[in-house]
Design a protein that fits this description.
Elements: H1 5-33, H2 39-42, H3 53-72, H4 86-101, H5 105-108, E1 115-120, E2 123-128, H6 129-154, H7 161-165
Antiparallel strand pairs: 1-2
Helix pairs in contact: 1-3, 1-4, 1-6, 3-4, 3-6
Organism: Dyella soli
Protein name: DUF1993 domain-containing protein
InterPro entries: DinB/YfiT-like, DUF1993
Length: 168
């Protein structure tokens, strides 16, 4: 049995974002239970030179939604990076999930050799679809989801491995 590009992308992205939202909810509940400003968590980072939690979530959602769009050969839906609250981050994740769900398998399947060009801060990068998915999108998505988890865990939020990977 072969694994299609759709099966290797959209369902993986949806699960990662669903679990990311779960982790954020636990972070929000942690702040409320301890009666401190949630903004402290939203601006938290593991190191002074890294991006804050809010930006980690924005990048994770961008990776997932843009990944599906580019594999499908369409321009990605643009999200403004203006979120400053947990509620706004949850809404962003929901918009990304809805967008990913709008793609059909036939749009993404067969994209293994589709040319994908992206602009990064270091310039343009070119990929074939399979390399873009496996060597750029998936590692970046999980890096930013993991970093969000680690920021919250370091801040004292009671999280465990199952919060990150979710239920099978």
């Amino acid at each position: 049995m072969t694994l299609s590009m759709y099966q290797a992308s959209a369902p993986v992205f949806l699960r990662a974002l669903t679990n990311l939202q779960h982790v954020l909810r636990k972070g929000e509940a942690h702040a409320q239970a301890r009666k401190f400003d949630p903004e402290l968590l939203l601006q938290a980072r593991l190191s002074p030179d890294m991006l804050p939690l809010t930006r980690q979530v924005q990048i994770a959602t961008d990776m997932a939604k843009n990944g599906c769009a580019r594999l499908a050969g369409v321009d990605p839906m643009k999200f403004e990076d203006t979120e400053t609250t947990f509620a706004e981050l949850h809404a962003r994740i929901e918009r990304a999930i809805d967008y990913i769900k709008s793609f059909k398998a036939e749009q993404i399947d067969g994209s293994e050799t589709r040319e994908v060009t992206i602009k990064t801060r270091t310039g343009e990068q070119q990929f074939e679809g399979q390399g873009y998915l496996l060597h750029f999108v998936i590692p970046n998505l999980f890096f930013h989801c993991t970093t969000t988890y680690a920021v919250l865990r370091q801040a004292g939020v009671e999280l465990g491995k199952m919060d990150f990977i979710g239920k099978p």
